[in-house]
Automatic annotation (TrEMBL):
<keyword id="KW-0963">Cytoplasm</keyword>
<protein>
    <submittedName>
        <fullName>FABP6 protein</fullName>
    </submittedName>
</protein>
<keyword id="KW-0446">Lipid-binding</keyword>
<dbReference type="InterPro" id="IPR031259">
    <property type="entry name" value="ILBP"/>
</dbReference>
<keyword id="KW-0813">Transport</keyword>
<feature type="domain" description="Cytosolic fatty-acid binding proteins">
    <location>
        <begin position="8"/>
        <end position="25"/>
    </location>
</feature>
<comment type="similarity">
    <text>Belongs to the calycin superfamily. Fatty-acid binding protein (FABP) family.</text>
</comment>
<dbReference type="InterPro" id="IPR000463">
    <property type="entry name" value="Fatty_acid-bd"/>
</dbReference>
<dbReference type="Pfam" id="PF14651">
    <property type="entry name" value="Lipocalin_7"/>
</dbReference>
<dbReference type="GO" id="GO:0008289">
    <property type="term" value="F:lipid binding"/>
</dbReference>
<dbReference type="GO" id="GO:0005737">
    <property type="term" value="C:cytoplasm"/>
</dbReference>
<dbReference type="InterPro" id="IPR012674">
    <property type="entry name" value="Calycin"/>
</dbReference>
Amino acid sequence: QGNMAFTGKYEFEGDENYEDFVKKIGLPSDKVEMGRNCKIITEVLQNGNDFTWTQHFPGGRTTTNTFTIGKEADMETMGGRKFKATVKMEDGKIVADFPNYHHTAEICGGKLVEISIASGVVYKRTSKKIA
């Protein structure tokens, strides 16, 4: 494909249903506090079907997931849990099933829009492109 649609650096802009979502997935309260209105910088490198997805948290903590569309990969959750997942591409969206939530990411109007669903709670995070 060579579609570089996701490549870029994105800064957290806003989210919806954060509290309800993190309760549903059982995130520890210190992590909940850390992630609230957190200016996460998401850096995406896309090379065809290969992705490196890095999240930079204030205070220097970083989470990186490297995956290839359609192949099983070792991943890490928001809470730092390791698991295996096969990431898919559906209608231009990246789709992954995390241990306790379903996650999609897409570029919409130049913004990175990520949606996670856990037990009927829809958490939406929007980040604006900064590089």
